[in-house]
Design a protein that fits this description.
Blueprint lengths: L19 H14 L8 E7 L1 H14 L28 E6 L3 E7 L8 H9 L5 E4 L7 H6 L12 H9 L3 H17 L2 E5 L14 H9 L1 H6 E4 L2 H7 L1
Parallel strand pairs: 1-3, 1-4, 4-5, 5-6
Antiparallel strand pairs: 2-3
Helix pairs in contact: 3-6
Length: about 240
């Protein structure tokens, strides 16, 4: 974006250019609508892998001054040292952006992990206004290494990829997602599932096709989880 003087906009669509000021104002307004004190920061939680960390970092830049020029200077972004990664798996990091915003981040690998649900509940106990969650890359990691980082082109294109896709929509995973949904409702936190970005570990639909079908076929899950669908955006960008 630094190399161009113009911004692409889809035809017929409005596009709000967020700034630190407008986001902070929006956060204060949301808190007042929720009957929260205007001195209480609006908390937004991010749970996921490096793709979700990237969304966190982009918001950090905007809250630090500018979506293009704002610094990425906090513990999640990597100041000091390297960005938070799988080495800090399931640790919670809270980053305040005064006066009205607090971002929360937890690096998360897979729903099959024994502590997955309790770890997510630890974030929800902080009562974030919204929790943005993604998973999938690490479920396919060993298999993609076997195939020299070759990702299936669209959907899972062999039996091994397909088995992992089925595993991600198993009755056990459904039960865990229902448990999380019930606890989020108790804590008053909205839930957003961000579909997977396209990368070398899997195709745009491979990790999430059955997982999303599981959510959308269950009345409780469908009402509890909003879907942030970036399949086409990530695939086209790739």
């Amino acid at each position: 974006a630094l190399n161009f003087t113009q911004v692409w906009l889809p035809y017929g669509c409005s596009y709000h250019r967020w700034s630190n000021h407008t986001f902070q104002t929006c956060a204060k307004h949301v808190q007042l609508k929720r009957n929260e004190s205007s001195h209480e920061r609006l908390r937004i939680a991010f749970i996921g892998d490096s793709g979700t960390r990237g969304v966190f970092n982009g918001l950090t830049r905007m809250l630090s001054g500018s979506e293009l020029y704002g610094p990425c200077s906090n513990i999640v972004c990597g100041n000091p040292g390297l960005p938070i990664s799988y080495r800090q798996h399931l640790e919670i990091f809270r980053v305040p952006f005064p006066p009205a915003v607090e971002l929360i981040f937890m690096y998360f690998k897979t729903m099959t992990h024994g502590s997955a649900v309790s770890a997510i509940k630890n974030v929800l106990q902080l009562k974030p206004y919204v929790t943005i969650f993604n998973s999938g890359a690490w479920d396919f990691d060993n298999l993609s290494r076997k195939y020299n980082r070759r990702a299936p082109i669209e959907r899972c294109d062999n039996e091994e990829y397909e088995e992992i896709s089925k595993m991600r929509a198993s009755p056990d995973i459904r039960s865990k997602m229902l448990d999380i949904a019930a606890f989020a409702k108790e804590m008053g936190s909205k839930l957003v599932y961000r579909t997977n970005h396209y990368n070398v570990r899997y195709g745009a639909n491979c990790a999430d096709d059955r997982f999303l079908e599981m959510i959308q076929s269950d009345d409780v899950l469908r009402e509890s989880w909003e879907i942030w669908d970036n399949f086409n955006t990530s695939r086209d960008s790739w």
